[in-house]
Amino acid sequence: MQMFAKKRVEILIERALLKRLTEELVRTGVSGFSVVPLAAGRGQAGPWDSDGQIGDAAGMFALWCIVDPARLEGLLQVVFAIVSRQVGLVSVSDVEVVRPERF
Q1: pTM here?
Q2: How far, rounded to the nearest angstrom, does the alpha carbon of residue 50 sit from its chain's CA centroid?
Q3: Domains of the chain
Q4: Which of 15, 62, 66, 94 is the most exposed place for a label (fewest CB within 10 A)?
Q5: Per-residue pLDDT tens for 10-62?
């Protein structure tokens, strides 16, 4: 089966910035993304978890999308403008897909 090279962008972000991030992704032409809540983790500031929180207003979320490599630089500029002064993480990895028209 033929495979096509793409880039997977994963972003860990605070709930307060999630809507702004998703709006910017849509504005820049990202065709789809997935978002999941995070329960706990460990970062530069040490461990954290969502125990004792009511709701997800202060929570962390993971968002990922797959994009064509030609669109990666512009997308990263938009993402970095949002997360650069906040708690967050951005990673990029190589992936291969079987239906390139979806990305």
Answers
A1: 0.85
A2: 19
A3: 4-40+58-102 (3.30.70.120)
A4: 94
A5: 999 999 999 999 999 999 999 899 999 998 888 777 777 766 555 555 689 99
